[in-house]
Design brief:
Zn(2+) binds at residues 16, 19, 149. The strands form 2 sheets. A 7-stranded mixed sheet has the order 3-2-1-4-5-10-6, sandwiched between helices. Strands 7-8-9 form a 3-stranded antiparallel sheet. The longest helix has 17 residues, at 147-163. The chain is of the alpha/beta class. Helix content is 29%, strand content 16%. The protein has one domain (9-277): LmbE-like (Rossmann fold, 3-Layer(aba) Sandwich). Helix 2 links the parallel strand 2 (37-42) and strand 3 (85-88). 49% of the residues are buried. It contains 6 helices and 10 strands. The protein starts with 8 loop residues before the first strand and ends in a 17-residue tail after the last strand.
């Protein structure tokens, strides 16, 4: 698609560094290339994450607890690749990664799950400042149940309702596309594993599918690769963070994994569901279809 999107403003609200790339990287890169003003608001530093590769293992929360600061740099590189601006909700470190369900990190008063009305007020102020036509976040389940993703959904809808954001969309993974991609994996990298049935979260339907052209696809791949502590791309490359190469094959798609080393295909389509505001028109092919630039 080549439509000029100058004058449109898009904000993506994400829980941790790397979510902007994994969930929405293709669409954000495409929107930015076509002239839209794209901003990513990240709610935490991702302090509770694990680390891929040996050199930086001691950054994790239960050792030196320096991972959050390191991930700021990864996020900056990712945003440059996508052509997006970025900010942290409140300020870097205002809210802390809550970890997965049951993580004791949620007892920390700064944990994002404990952010209360303050997070809504801060996000509403950002919406007032940026005046987005479109806001993208997760669905009510956060995509896969992560407490911080669920909280990001909650504050996004509250802040959007307060400030009159024209449209909110949710980034989702389509079951049919995911299963087709998983079936196309012919070689799983050494040390990785194939996904078990229904292990990866997905939805049966969406309201809009965005096919990524080569620019958007490769930008998404590169932005994911910028998060080297969190994402491993099976293309034979190595980095300072992860000096071990992984090689796999997937019928023309890129293979990647998180620290759980479950092989996943980097799909050629991103899917979105309608969340709030102005509905997508029938036959919509773009995230901004039906919205005025005014």
């Amino acid at each position: 698609m080549t439509e000029d999107l100058n004058g449109y403003r898009v904000v993506a609200v994400h829980a941790h560094p790397d979510d902007e790339a994994i969930s929405t990287g293709g669409a954000l890169a495409d929107l930015a290339r076509r002239g839209a003003e794209v901003t990513v608001i990240t709610c935490t530093l991702g302090e509770q994450g694990e680390v891929i590769g040996d050199p930086y293992q001691h950054l994790v929360a239960d050792h030196s607890d320096q991972l959050g600061g390191f991930r700021i740099g990864e996020l900056r590189r990712s945003l440059r690749i996508l052509g997006a601006q970025g900010s942290f909700l409140g300020a870097p470190g205002r809210f802390r990664d809550s970890g997965m369900v049951g993580d004791p990190a949620q007892d920390n008063p700064r944990a994002f799950v404990n952010s209360g009305a303050a997070a809504v007020e801060l996000l509403a102020a950002e919406f007032e400042r940026l005046r987005p036509h479109l806001v993208i976040t997760y669905g009510p389940d956060g995509g896969y149940g992560h407490p911080d993703h669920i909280r990001a959904h909650e504050i996004t809808h509250l802040a959007a309702a307060q400030t009159g954001v024209p449209r909110v969309l949710w980034a989702v993974t389509d079951t049919a596309d995911l299963q087709a991609g998983l079936a196309s994996i012919s070689t799983v990298p050494a040390g990785w594993r194939a996904a078990k049935p229904e292990e990866l979260a997905s939805v049966d339907s969406s309201d809009l599918a965005i096919t990524l052209d080569d620019h958007a696809y490769h930008a998404k791949r590169a932005s994911m690769q910028a998060h080297a502590t969190q994402v491993w791309i099976a293309d034979g490359s190595i980095s300072e963070v992860n000096p071990v190469a992984a090689i796999g094959s997937c019928d023309g798609l890129v293979l990647w994994a998180l620290s759980n080393l479950i092989a996943q295909p980097l799909l050629r389509r991103e899917h979105y569901q309608f969340g709030a505001g102005v509905a997508l028109p029938e036959g919509a092919t773009g995230l901004l279809d039906g919205l005025s630039r005014g």
